[in-house]
Amino acid sequence: MKPKAISIGQIKFHKLNTSRWEWRDTYHWLLTLTWPQFSACVFALYLGINLVFSCCYRLRPGCVGGMNSWTDSFFFSVETLATVGYGHMYPQTLFGHWIATLEIIVGMFGMALVTGLIFIRFSRPVARIVFSEPLVLAPFDGQPALMYRMANLREQSMAEAEFRIILMRNETTKEGEELRRFYPLRLQFDRLILFPAIITIRHIIDQESPLHGVSLADMERDDVRFLASIVCIDTVIPAPVQSNHAYTWKDIRLNHKFVEVYKEVAQNAMTVDYSLIHTTATI
User: Fold this and answer.
1) CATH number assigned to the domain comprising residue 55
2) 124 to each of 15, 79, 115, 180, 190, how far by Cα in Å?
3) What are phi and psi of 234, to 5 degrees?
């Protein structure tokens, strides 16, 4: 099975010369398929099993009573695999009984496996987190700051949210070798007990920041990219969930600010306009 390319933002990593595929990787592969792909795979497997067993019944004509054609053998296989057994066709030789028994066992195991996979796909927690499309680079509290927004689309608050952002850029070592370096950016705050709606995450560009004194032209030259992530707990399931978003230097809007999304409508009551999460305005 050819490994899929791993995408981080606009970059794709095609893994070459990795360790050989193992049969247990099928489980992980099935869980990574989309629902249409998964449904097509299950249907193809179901059809293939019935074709194999229908051919087995045709190996010994007369092993199943009432079977007169290949179509009869195929639909007898379908009925046996599902343990329906309508009764108008039935095994009448030892060979027929053994094939029918084997198919029933395959059907029982197959039903259990498919049911388990469907349950896992439905129950697997998914973070409904939206990241702002732009990054904003503007003064905040007297210092330049790199900012982005995140929105929780769930009706319930996420718990114990942890925020991170990593800077990636090309640098040249003292030996003259060019390499990609990674810098975790310190955030104004990186944890929230509860994450109910929309929040702005800020990295203050002080003298200790890897972005101190760096212009947009420098970022373009070094092919600067950012990877932002959030890890939190879905309190309904409950289970940890994770989401991430990649940015490039092209996503930075200089001297912009995010438009306010909160509006107080009554005492202790506010509205949150999710349509404005990506909207910015010049300062």
Assistant:
1) 1.10.287.70
2) 26, 32, 14, 34, 26
3) -75, 115
CA 172 from centroid of its chain's CA atoms: 34
Q: Give 211-219's long-range contacts (Cβ < 8 A, gap of 24+).
A: 211/146, 211/167, 211/185, 216/249, 216/252, 216/254, 219/169, 219/249, 219/252
Residue 269 lies in a domain: yes
pLDDT band at residue 189 under the 50/70/90 scheme: very high
pLDDT band per the 50, 70, 90 thresholds, residue 5: low
Tokens of 78: 């379908």
**Number of domains within the chain:** 2
pLDDT single digits (tens) 130-156: 999 999 999 999 999 999 999 999 888
Give the global pTM.
0.77
Question: In terms of domains, do 138 and 198 share one?
Answer: yes
Tell whether the model's pLDDT for residue 66 goes beyond 90: no
Specify the range with the lowest mean pLDDT, choosing from 2-11, 29-38, 215-224.
2-11
Q: What is the pLDDT of residues 220-265, one digit of tens each?
A: 999 999 999 999 998 888 889 999 999 999 999 999 999 999 998 8
Domain enclosing residue 110, as ranges: 6-123
Residue 154 corresponds to which tokens in the numbers above?
């769930």
CA gap 128, 22 in Å, rounded: 32
How many whole angstroms separate alpha carbon 56 and alpha carbon 52? 6
Q: Give domain status of residue 1, yes or no.
A: no
Tokens standing for residue 145: 């700051």
Look at the alpha carbons of 231, 232, 238, 241 in this order and tell me if their dihedral is positive or negative.
negative
